Amino acid sequence: MTTDAPPAASSKRTTLNARVEKIFDHASDTRSLFLSLTSGKHLRFVPGQFISITIPLADETRSRPYSIASDPEDRSPFEICFNRVAGGRGVAWLFDRSVGDTLDFSGPFGTFTLAPEPDSEEGFIAEGTGIAPIRPMLKQALAAPSAAKIHLIYAASDRQHILYAAELDALARSAPNFSYEPVIAPAESIYDRLSELAQTRWIAGDQDRTRHLYICGVGKGVLRLRDLLRGAGYERRAVHYEQW
Ligand SMILES: Cc1cc2nc3c(=O)[nH]c(=O)nc-3n(C[C@H](O)[C@H](O)[C@H](O)COP(=O)(O)OP(=O)(O)OC[C@H]3O[C@@H](n4cnc5c(N)ncnc54)[C@H](O)[C@@H]3O)c2cc1C
Questions:
Q1: What pLDDT is recorded for position 2?
Q2: Contact 123, 178 (CB under 8 A)
């Protein structure tokens, strides 16, 4: 199979077209679309990157980024995963897509990708659908020859919104260097809880500041976590984040 779109941050703004091959509902407000390029080619991307989807509403055309939740090595349709947002007309349009519909997008884009430092421990923090870019990053990190520790703290407001839970459990059982901590907390205090856990594990837990830490979620809580970790002595470049 041939490939389309280079994986680097230099991706040109070429419009690509994809067909919805499959729909999976994680919960009533959280869905995955599995997409394949109508050109028949395979989309190349780096774990952590996103595509920008063109959303033609009646009164405006908007472009919204969605992270690729699947593994680039997987030759089946690639996956995006999203949740409904109060007043979010862009994502509502995505929820209205059916199998066989097509959509335009550009990309892949983004630099929220694994740092090329295989020997440093990697810590991941995800909230809700913020697991989307982290899922393929975890797989990439686990496929590396390094046995460095990898830990995921993953928070949602209830069990149903811990996505890919069975897969994460299986990974934690099979990969001795991977551990994972699902966290259930009320939506309004989710980032307080994540901050406490990050503080305990990666700040108070030891003096090691060589880890690379990756955060993905919605709103200012992401920046609070970033600042907490940087303020505790982690280098700026070692605290990677993507704020939606
Ligand atoms: C790099 C990047 C990657 C992204 N990847 C994803 C993804 O994989 N899955 C996904 O669901 N969203 C993702 N988003 C958010 C997505 O692009 C849209 O902002 C979201 O779907 C709302 O768009 P809208 O046009 O419906 O709403 P808008 O009217 O544009 O509303 C935006 C508001 O919703 C908030 N918001 C954005 N995303 C969420 C969310 N997931 N949950 C709750 N509130 C949210 C924003 O902070 C903002 O206040 C990503 C954003 C960025 C910047």
A1: 43
A2: no
Same fold, 3-109 and 122-243: no
C-alpha 99 – ligand 1 centre gap (Å) = 22
13-50 pLDDT per residue, tens: 799 999 999 999 999 999 999 999 999 999 999 999 99
> In this structure, which residue's CA is closest to atom 51 in ligand 1?
244
Is the bond preceding residue 116 a cis peptide, omega within 30 degrees?
Answer: no
Distance CA(94)–CA(34), nearest Å, equals 12
Using CA atoms, how far apart are residues 234 and 164, in angstroms rounded to an integer? 29
Domain parsing of the chain, residue ranges:
3-109, 122-243
Q: Report the C-alpha gap between 33 and 156 in whole angstroms.
A: 21
136 near 124, Cβ under 8 Å?
Answer: no
Into which CATH architecture does domain 3-109 fall? Answer: Beta Barrel (2.40)
Q: What is the pLDDT of residues 119-139, one digit of tens each?
A: 889 999 999 999 999 999 999
Spatial contact of 214 and 112, defined as CB atoms under 8 Å apart: yes
CB-CB contact of 240 with 116 (8 Å): no
CATH code for the domain defined by 122-243: 3.40.50.80
pLDDT given at position 8? 47
Does ligand 1 come within 6 angstroms of the Cβ of 52?
no
The pLDDT confidence band at residue 12, using thresholds 50, 70 and 90, is low
Q: Which of 30, 49, 66, 85 to mutate to test the pocket of ligand 1 (most atoms within 8 A of CB)?
A: 85
Residue 71 and residue 97: Cα distance in Å, rounded?
Answer: 23
